[in-house]
TrEMBL record:
Stretches that traverse the bilayer: 46-69, 76-95, 107-127, 162-184
Organism: Nocardia coubleae
Keywords of the record: Membrane, Transmembrane, Transmembrane helix
Keyword hit for Lipid metabolism: no
Pfam families found in the cross-reference section: DUF1275
Transmembrane helix is among the record's keywords: yes
Protein name (record): DUF1275 domain-containing protein
Amino acid sequence: MTMVAFLSILAGFIGAAAYTHSAGYFVTFMTGNTERALLGWFDGDYLLAVGAISLLFAFGLGVFVASLLRRRLWRNGHYGASVVTTVALAAAVVVDYVVSRTGGQELGFVPIMFVAFAVGALNTAFVKNGEVSVPLSYVTGTVVKLGQGIESHVSGGSVRDWLGYGLQYAAFATGALLGGVMSMLVGGEMMLIVATGVSASAILATSRSTEPAP
């Protein structure tokens, strides 16, 4: 559960960094991007639609690449996902500095694509029986399981029926809160640098982790 909490905090922080220092792009919320793509198309805002579709593609590509590397190179999925995430975030920093020239406050769309890729990769950290067992950035399912667990506890179960989901949600919210607070103090480029550093520390932590997939 320790690694789940740590990586959930990272996911929340990355999402906050991207949202607060861009044009409101979602890198953790693909449901929202799907709706923005369709609504943008029907409202005639084709730039919004294309942007949302591009983020969906980048997120999915991150999942694909991390999953492929997991199958071919890394047996420790936590470690492999952390490596891919860190590389993608570092690439976002470089691209933002070299290409976008945004002055460090707002992030350009191209760096955000790399961030979406990174979050997609991060979501492959916990796999069981070939499928993702812990969704780190899309917490709707976590909230549903939390509600079901509370009902189970009330109906005669134990606190364990919901505690893990509650802790995971709290970890994600904590990461988002930290990202929101930091966004008031530094620009988007610095937030990406911090996120890259945290993700890099996850490489060290996950390389030593023997925690099985929940």
